[in-house]
Specification:
- With 357 residues, the protein is α/β, with parallel strands linked by helices.
- 32% of the residues lie in helices and 15% in strands.
- It has nine helices and twelve strands.
- Bound molecules: 2-acetamido-2-deoxy-beta-D-glucopyranose (7 copies).
- One 2-acetamido-2-deoxy-beta-D-glucopyranose binds next to loops.
């Protein structure tokens, strides 16, 4: 019987080797880790925060590794003065991948604000006078928050931004970038640039998101800011409230085929009762929708952004249908395969979840 194994014809061996090679290509190519994992087995959850003091400790990394996606925010390592924040962010992303190679990791970037937390970007901007948005007198323009704005109508600025995202993604072995403040909001700019400049700036923002998502490719994500946002394959709803509007917004992102991150407002303690938020999410969630809670930064051994709720481990199963709205009562309902039953009342903005046992 051994003979059958030993005396393969060359053709057979080539076939076996070809099949093996194909399997290796299919299952071992890096693309498998790029799109975030998704399953209805339990609530799909994402992490988005930073540790201003430095790299997370092992316990923290173990917790972060349980989420399907993790974005490292700009305050990572902000209290460390001898290293650029961008490098500390990349190190944190690497540490998370080492804790769980299957988690998808993302590098925070702001689409147009000169944020001092991004220390290398802030330095490079100051070395390139033509990168600043300016009014007709040449005065540099600030937004309402007091941050200088990048001139996104300048193709060199967009190329600079794109290179930083791709470089960080490469060094972190990461899965894309977050693109904060990409709503094209221009009303707070002071001094006011000419209308023509603002128009080109808005178009430049669109071109930036288009070109960066394209450069990242099919399986990596640029995470934008509102469901239905053009070009980006993913979006975050930064303040996901228990309201009808949030349900409609979440469904809109899902209907565009976008990965959607629904984030509880940072004013809410994650250890408090989040039932209303969870019910809102469960009514609207689609394939590749994720729930998240926690402030954008913490200092020292503060673990609040790492809160792992008991609800994250409860059985869910695929939904039996999309959320069903009863216009008579104003109540949304949805049933999941495990028997978990969710209601959301738009008259009171309260939700109830009967978890299956
Ligand atoms: C934050 O970083 C510091 C320095 O590495 C570390 O001592 C602390 O434990 C970290 N906090 C968490 C929650 O991991
Ligand atoms: C690319 O990222 C690595 C790791 O953070 C950093 O050391 C390097 O300086 C970056 N390169 C550029 C051109 O910014
Ligand atoms: C945006 O991209 C389009 C198409 O590639 C180009 O024609 C246009 O000039 C770009 N806009 C700006 C402001 O650079
Ligand atoms: C400024 O932003 C507003 C709101 O997004 C937009 O309607 C308007 O067209 C923008 N202004 C210019 C000159 O593009
Ligand atoms: C909630 O959203 C649904 C779907 O868009 C809409 O039909 C309904 O009128 C909304 N209900 C309330 C109370 O706004
Ligand atoms: C943490 O983030 C908040 C905004 O959420 C910011 O106001 C604050 O300055 C940050 N704190 C530190 C220590 O970086
Ligand atoms: C976090 O706690 C550990 C263990 O108690 C301690 O060694 C470390 O210095 C703490 N880190 C910070 C930044 O407070």
């Amino acid at each position: 019987m051994h003979g059958n194994c030993i005396y393969h014809s060359h053709k057979e061996i080539n076939f076996v080797m070809l099949t093996f090679t194909l399997l290796v290509v299919l299952f071992a190519s890096p693309s498998w880790a790029a799109l975030p994992q998704f399953s209805w087995d339990t609530l799909p959850v994402f992490f988005h925060s930073s540790n201003t003091t430095g790299i997370y400790n092992d316990d923290a990394l173990k917790t972060i590794a349980k989420f399907k996606m993790a974005t490292i925010e700009k305050w990572m390592g902000y209290d460390m003065k001898n290293i650029d924040d961008e490098d500390e962010m990349v190190l944190a992303m690497r540490a998370i991948k080492a804790a769980n190679p299957k988690i998808a990791t993302y590098f925070y970037m702001n689409s147009f604000k000169d944020r001092p937390e991004m220390t290398r970007m802030a330095r490079e901007l100051s070395e390139n006078p033509s990168y600043y948005l300016r009014d007709s007198d040449g005065t540099r323009v600030k937004n309402g928050g007091g941050f200088y704005a990048f001139d996104l109508s300048n193709p060199d600025v967009r190329q600079w931004w794109l290179n930083i995202c791709l470089n960080a993604t490469k060094f972190a072995n990461g899965d894309g970038c977050f693109c904060d403040s990409s709503q094209r909001e221009n009303s707070s700019f002071r001094p006011k640039p000419l209308a023509e400049k603002l128009k080109n700036w808005g178009e430049g923002m669109l071109n930036l998101t288009r070109d960066v998502q394209e450069a990242l490719g099919e399986n990596k994500l640029l995470i934008g800011k509102y469901p239905g946002q053009p070009y980006v394959k993913a979006v975050q709803i930064e303040s996901f409230e228990p309201t009808n509007d949030s349900i409609v917004s979440l469904m809109l992102g899902a209907s565009h085929g976008q990965v959607v991150q629904a984030h509880v407002p940072i004013s809410i303690e994650c250890s408090s009762d989040l039932t209303n938020y969870l019910a809102t999410f469960l009514i609207g969630a689609g394939q590749y929708s994720y729930f998240g809670c926690g402030n954008w930064n913490a200092t020292g051994n503060d673990t609040r952004p790492l809160t792992w709720l008991p609800e994250y481990d409860k059985p869910l199963g695929p939904p039996k249908s999309t959320g069903v709205y009863n216009s008579q009562t104003g109540v949304w309902s949805r049933l999941f395969a495990s028997g978990t039953d969710v209601l959301f009342d738009t008259k009171t903005n309260k939700g109830t979840i009967k978890w299956s046992q």
